[in-house]
Amino acid sequence: MSVTAATPEPAVTAVKARSFKAERTIARIKSALRSTGAHLILILVAASCIFPLIWMFSSALKTNATVFTDMSLFPSNPNWGTFATAWTKGKFGVYFFNSVFYTTICVFGVLVISSLAAFAFARFQFPGKNAIYYTFLATIMIPVPGAIVALYILLMKLGLVDTRLGYMLPQINGGLALGLFILRPFFERIPKDLEDAARIDGCGRLGIYWHVAIPLAKPALAVVALFTALNVWNEFMLAQLVLQSQSLMPLQLGLVKFWGGTLTEYPLLMAGMTISVVPIVIAYVFLQRHIIAGVTAGALKG
C-alpha cells in the first residue's frame, strides 16, 4: 500500500500568506512610528537650541524702542547699522580680534605639545609611562574654580597678570589632557610596519612623527582643535581674573563690560553676542563630522 505525501490546501496557504503580510505591515508601521517619534524629539531639541540664536539675531536688527514690542522674527525695517555701531562704539572689533588671536595661539600650542606627548606615550617605552599618562588625565577632573586662586598667585609672582601670555598659557596647559586622551589611541594604531619602513627610508623619531603619525591622525587633530577652540573662545572666568586692560579683553569679557556700561542698549548687546557666536558656529558646522569620527575612534581604542 503506497503512501502519498499530503499537499497543503490552497486555502491554508492563502491564510498563511495573508498572516505573513499582516505581520510585515505591522512591523513596518511600528518602525515608522518609532522613527517618526525619534525625529520629532530631535526636531524639538534642535528648535529649542536654534530659536534663541534666531531671536538674538532678530533683536540685533531692531531699535531700542521696538526690541520689546516687535515680536516678529525678522523686523520689517531691519537696522543693519547696529552691527557697525557695535563693532566700533562697543569695541567689539578689538574684542573679536583678541579672541581670534588667543584661540589661534592656544589651538596651535595644544596641538603641537599634546601631539608630541601623545606620540611619545604611544610609541616609546620608558619607566613610569602609564603613571605619568594617567596623572595627566586626572587633571581633567580638577574644576577650574578649584585652581583659580593658586593660578592667580602663580601668575602674579611671574608678572603675567594682565598680559596676553598670562591668559594663554593656562589655557594651553588646560587643553593638553584632552589632547593626550584623544590622540594617543590614534598613534597606538599606527602599524609597526609603517614605522619600520620610515626608518629604512632614513626617518628618525621626529621624521616618523611628522611624516607618518601626523597625516594619519588628522581626524583626531581636528577634534582636538575644535574642542580647544570652543573652550578658548567661550572662556570667561580666567579672562575676568587675569585681564584688566580693555585692549586685551576677549569677546566674552568684552560683552560683560559692554553690558555693564550700556545697560539699556539691547540691540547693540545682541549684535555683539551675534558677532561672538557666528565664527564658532561656522567652525562647528564645517568640522562636526570629525568630532564623531575622532571621539568614537578614541573611545573604542581606549
List the helices and strands and how they pair.
Layout: H1 10-60, H2 81-88, H3 92-123, H4 129-138, H5 144-157, H6 164-188, H7 192-200, H8 205-216, H9 218-233, H10 237-242, H11 251-261, H12 266-301
Helix pairs in contact: 1-12, 2-12, 3-6, 3-9, 3-11, 4-6, 6-9, 6-12, 7-8, 9-12, 11-12
What's the gist of this structure?
This protein is mostly helical and 302 residues long. The protein contains twelve helices and no strands.
List keywords for this structure.
302 residues, flat, MetI-like fold, mainly alpha
Structure write-up:
Helix content is 76%, strand content 0%. The chain is mainly α and 302 residues long. It folds into two domains: 7-60; 81-301, MetI-like fold (Orthogonal Bundle), CATH 1.10.3720. The longest helix is centred in the N-terminal third of the chain and has 51 residues, at 10-60. The mean pLDDT is 85.
